[in-house]
Every structure is written in C-alpha cells, then in structure tokens.
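Our consortium's second objective concerns turning raw sequence data into structural hypotheses that experimental partners can test. To show how far this objective has progressed, the report includes one record in full. It was chosen at random from the queue rather than selected for favorable results. The single chain below, 361 residues long, was entered without modification.
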Amino acid sequence: MTPIDGRFVMHFSFSDFPQVWGRTPRTWGPEGLRSLLDSVAATGIRVINFRITRNLSFSNPLGWDPGHVDYANWEVLEAGVEYAHSHGMQIWGWYDQTDSHGGCGYGGKRKHTAFILNHPHTIRCPLPGCKPNPIEVSEHLDPNCPLRGKGSQGSLAFREVQDFRLKVIGEVVKRMVDGMYIVEYGTIGYEEPVTRGFRESLGMPPTAEIDPSDPRWISHQSGFLVSYLRRVRGVTAGGPIACRLTVEFRGPTKQTSGLRPWALEAIPELLEKNIIDGAAVWVAPDVYKLRDRLGIPARQIHRRYEIPPMDPATMELTIREMLDAGVGTVDLDEATNVEMKPGGWALIKSLMEKYSDQKTD
C-alpha cells in the first residue's frame, strides 16, 4: 500500500461548493474541481478525503437511486483521482455510510435513499427494546414519509445493508483511490438478528432482558462490526491497487467523547489483525482513550478536526497537541470551511509550512 503522504489530510466535499456558492467556474464542473484541488495542493497537503455521496449519485454507475442533488453528467471521482494523481496527491474515498443525511422534508431538499425506503426492516434500533433514535424520528419532516416513527439508518446486522455498502465501496475502489475512509455511525444496536442471536447463544428465553453492560453482549455486538469490516477489507485489497482502510468512530455527537462499548471492544482486534489500517475519532479525549487505555499505537489513530471558526491560535494549539500525541494524521474538516473564511487557504498553508515535516509509516 502507498504510504500516507504527510501528517495532514483535507476533507473535501465537492458537491457542497455549488450548493453554497452556486455553479461557477470555481465550484462546478471539471474546471471547478481542478481549481479547488489546486487550492488544496498549494497549502502543501497531499492527501484528500474525497466525499462520495451517500448513494453514489455523483455518477450513478449502477443506476441506483437517482439521488437528491444534480452533480453533473461527468464522472467527478474519476476526474478527481486522475487530476490529483497527476499532481502528486492522494485521493481517498470518504463514505459516510448513511441512508439519510438529516432526515427528509425541508422543501424536498432532503430525502432518504431508495435502499432504506425499500428495506425499512433493516433500520437500526440503538436503544433497548428495539427502539429507534428519537433524533432520527424527529427528522422525518415529510408528512408522507413511510419511515415516520422509525429511524433512518440501516443496521449492519442485516446482510442486505452490508451488501449495499460493499457495492458502493467496490465502485469507489475501482476508480483507483489510494484509500477508503468510512464512517461508522453506530449501526449495531438491538435489532432482531442481534438480540435473537445473543439469546440463543446463551440459551436465554426469547424475551429475556439484555443487560447493555454485559461484556458478553458487548462482545456479541462487536462481532457484527468485525465481520463486516473483514468483508470491506476484502474489497479494498482486491481492487486495482491495494488501498488503505481507515474507519471513523464517534460518540453521541461529533464533538462529544464516548465511543460505543462495542466499538471500543472491536477496535484493538481490527487493528491487530490488520482488518483496518487506522481508527479516526473527532475529539482529543478519544485519541487518548485509544492510545493510553487500549494501547493503540498512536500512528494508527487519526484525529478528524472540525476547523470552524478557523481561529489561528486555536488551530495551532490543537494541531500541535495532536502531533505531540503522535497521531498518524490530523484530518482537517473541511475544504468548504476554508473557502468561506477570507484568507483561509493562506492560513492553512502557513500552518502546513510550520508543521508538515514528518511522514507516517
């Protein structure tokens, strides 16, 4: 596998630019893509986490789910990979693995994927008793949504969810990306296949209460994630180039520490057995939890850092702390935030010139 080039990564959502600034030569089409990638390259950052849509509607290569945004009739990821590689940069496929990004409604601007609408039985149940996430329930603003009263994300406990995710990942890997960056959204809960399998393994009655803190239950949940990521590794290793695999884990929110118990159970096994190459987290306490409590080598930990309001002193303090902690990379979130701030690209360049002097293994 290609070594990660440098200690910094830029998260890049090309689809956000025309939505924020409209379709201009800077934000739209091949010209806009090249212009924005040039801006990243000019800072000295050589690795880009290039966001694909939740349903691959940027190109719709398999005719799946037309999607909710018109991205263009050209293959944006292929164009990005080709241009980045020709300029000495790496492109990773950043896949959120979501079936809904903020629910539905909002004047028709937000929709669920066709997959989850056609497979409502696969929706995750993160709370005991197979109860949905109340935040997801509240996000169904379309009064005609067939998922009202339910959640909005598929669970990895169902084979069809795994198969759909793997198809998307496979399409991205075909396009010669250098790595995959996938987000784990807490998609193992109290779904029927999970609870049934656990009770049967212990000879428990079908309706027996499950203690969420039972180490056996936590281990059982983590097994679903490990099994799925083995399949992901098979896809990333079997593409035209063997690409790296980083998985992001998060707490209740992006800015809240508290990784799920079954994720903490799975992460050491995933790294020790080379099922994944790195684990990404959002907040510093989780960096230290992985490094100091679980004994994860710091170079295998990646810190995703949300950079608004782009205060230079705060950014420098955070970057210095994370590099001193030994993380493999600091992943800046994200390019649209840099574009919004006057002088934003110059600020990132100045920080990179000061701190971009090491490479990871």
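The partners drew two points from this record. DSSP finds 13 helices and eight strands in the chain. Residues 54-73 have pLDDT under 50 and may be disordered. Both points have been shared with the crystallography group to help prioritize constructs.
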